[in-house]
Design brief:
By secondary structure, the chain is α+β, with helices and mostly antiparallel strands. It has helices at residues 12-27, 57-62, 90-114, 139-143, 148-157, 176-190; strands at 36-45, 48-53, 65-72, 75-83, 128-133, 160-163, 168-173, 198-207, 210-215, 219-224, 245-253, 259-262. A hairpin with a 5-residue loop joins β11 and β12 (259-262). The longest helix has 25 residues, at 90-114.
Length: 354
């Protein structure tokens, strides 16, 4: 709280106590009782003295004491004394306290005429701070790459968001709606969607087979064209448009985290769940294995009798079983080299004549 004193011929600190107490009550801050304060002065001449109430500037400057006392109707909450003499007697101190009590009571009565207790509701202009604890593993998701996510939250909601290393988030604003918007956004990032629960969302992308909807702040899911309405929908653009707010129900979350949503089972006006009147799809008939049973094609099928007239196994054949060796080829040294011999397939009239 800040107290701005523009002019004073008395105690500005005690004025701050009284004005601050009224300001807190007016803002709806739940203080137990109002507090008032008064500054007491002293004029001392030998053994004679006079205690002054609510001293003015000159009395403070020329007097011997500045004794500030603040408290509620139930007693003193604080006090502070400045003196210009060597000390004061018990008699002076008691007189100053009793006189201060009467002065505080009078001021409290005048304050009560304006406002006697704290208002039941916090003022819409009063600054608020709400705290939210999240898991440490989710801090990075709330901040985003280079602070992108948290800057977007602040820019879109208008609330101030601070987060520490332990996952404690402080959301502050004088507008309760801004705090609530930021809180929902953050919870949407750190919370996981629940199957069967209804959420507020916004269409972000439209494709041929449906629309992708952003919900819970940082989650996306698909509303298939068949889940937009109970009747047949030709094109998703016949029902939704990008940026349109919608209400969706989570139907399924697969193992990869992909979310399947539905609009047709949610009242788009009230957000209440609707009865699913669409008959369930009939299971597809089992077409079986069109290739036939594997047993008919396996290794046990009958291939007929094994041929036994193929002779002994290749490894058991000896060189003598390959027939007589040709001896009409002449000695190896009498034959021309392979590269000089003419192939047998060349016609006779093309062969060279030696």
């Amino acid at each position: 709280m800040v107290s701005d004193i523009t002019e004073s011929n008395g105690s500005s600190s005690m004025a701050t106590v009284c004005g601050g107490s009224l300001a807190l009550m007016d803002a709806g801050v739940p203080i137990k009782r109002p507090v008032s304060g008064i500054a007491m002065g002293l004029i001392l001449e030998g053994e004679d003295f006079t205690v002054l109430s609510d001293i003015l500037g000159d009395e403070d400057h020329l007097g011997d004491m500045d004794f500030k006392v603040a408290g509620t109707s139930e007693g003193i909450t604080t006090m502070q004394m400045d003196i210009k003499v060597a000390g004061i007697t018990r008699e002076i101190f008691e007189a100053a306290l009793h006189q201060a009590k009467d002065g505080r009571a009078h001021i409290l009565a005048e304050m009560t005429k304006a406002l006697g207790s704290a208002r039941a509701e916090l003022s819409e202009h009063a600054p608020r701070i709400e705290t939210l604890q999240i898991d440490k593993s989710k801090i990075r998701e709330v901040i985003g790459t280079g602070g992108k996510v948290i800057r977007e939250i602040v820019a879109e909601t208008g609330a101030k968001v601070d987060i520490d290393d332990e996952g404690l988030i402080k959301i502050s604003s004088s507008d309760l709606s801004q705090i609530e918007a930021a809180r929902k956004w953050i919870l949407g990032i750190v919370e996981e969607p629940e199957v069967g629960k209804i959420y507020d969302g916004k269409v972000v992308t439209i494709v041929d087979f449906g629309a992708f909807v952003n919900f819970m702040g940082g989650k996306d899911g698909l509303v298939h064209v068949s889940e937009m309405k109970n009747e047949r929908v030709e094109k998703p653009t016949d029902v939704v448009s990008e940026g349109q707010p919608v209400k969706v129900k989570v139907l399924e979350i697969d193992q990869r985290g992909k979310v399947r949503l539905s609009m047709r089972v949610v009242d788009q006006e009230t957000g209440e769940a609707l009865e699913d009147t669409r008959p369930p799809r009939e299971p597809r008939p089992d077409r079986g294995d069109r290739r036939g049973p594997r047993g008919d094609r396996g290794g046990d099928r009958d291939r007929g009798p094994r041929r036994d007239d193929r002779g002994p196994p290749r490894g058991d054949r000896s060189r003598d079983d390959r027939g007589p060796r040709r001896d009409d080829r002449g000695p190896r040294e009498d034959r021309a080299p392979r590269e000089e011999r003419e192939p047998d397939h060349i016609p006779a009239f093309l062969k060279s004549e030696d």
